[in-house]
Amino acid sequence: MAEYKDELAISAFTNDVARVMDEKGVSQSELARRLGVSRARVSPLMQHTSSPTLRTMVEVAIALGCEVTPGVAPCGLRPALSMTVQS
Prior knowledge:
The chain is mostly helical. It has four helices and two strands, in the order ααααββ.
């Protein structure tokens, strides 16, 4: 069950990244450039085939002008992680 919850949190993060990228017009290639990595490193994240560390999540969020806000809430209320755009 914990593994399933991990996957849900990672999926929620990835969906947030995709939404922000779309809103800001940032391609995977541009995100990779901002992170200083190859597009091949970004692609698994966007395809839900990797398990990024919290550090990676923070780096991705910062590259998009956002922040990761981990938190704890009763089960079923919200994903374990969310990403917010910084002003």
